[in-house]
Amino acid sequence: METSVPSGAPAAQANPSRTWEVLCHVAALSAFIGVPFGNIAGPLIVWAMKRAEIPAVEHHGKESLNFQITASIALVVLAAMGFVCFALAAAIPLVGLLFLIPGGLIALAGTVVLLGNLVLTIVATLKASEGVPYRYPFTIRFVK
């Protein structure tokens, strides 16, 4: 079994700056393994540590941070709205059942936001690994 690189093919080389660019996005996934607000803290830590050293980290860090803040705000708002709907459904006999429909739709919207966050973070990670600047859609630019 041959393990050498075929002639004419470039050998893969480790690029430390690319690693930090990727970490800007991968760090956001820490929220999916149970770190509270890890989706914001992770990219913030990587961005704060390396933004002055590596210009591309400035872009990737801000993009990841802005997207994660936007997604977190959306999830908090949806959770509050869902709580109100389900609380009203439980508190008001019979008529309160009408609040189950919007509550269910809000829960569905929250699921879409979570899955969208996961998918877009993976896409951004792959783009960063290729050295391509990525701009998240549906993002409020809090950090400029």
Structural account:
With 144 residues, the protein is an all-alpha fold. The protein has one domain. It is 63% helix and 0% strand. The chain has four helices and no strands. The chain has helices at residues 16-26, 38-50, 55-91, 100-129. The radius of gyration is 20 Å and the shape is elongated.
What is the gist of this entry?
The chain is mainly alpha-helical. The protein is built from four helices and no strands.
Shape: elongated
Total helix count?
4
Structural class by sheet pairing and helices:
mainly alpha
Rounded to the nearest angstrom, the radius of gyration is: 20 Å
The whole-number mean of residue pLDDT values reads 90
Largest sheet: none
N-to-C span: 51 Å
User: Total strand count, please?
Assistant: 0
Number of spatially distinct domains: 1
SSE string, helices as H and strands as E: HHHH
β-sheet strand percentage: under 5%
Instruction: Report the helical percentage.
Output: 55-70%
Low-confidence parts lasting 5 or more residues at pLDDT below 50? 1-6
Main attributes of the structure:
4 helices, mainly alpha, 0% strand, 144 residues, single chain
Provide the fold topology:
Blueprint: H1 16-26, H2 38-50, H3 55-91, H4 100-129
Helix pairs in contact: 1-2, 1-3, 1-4, 2-3, 3-4
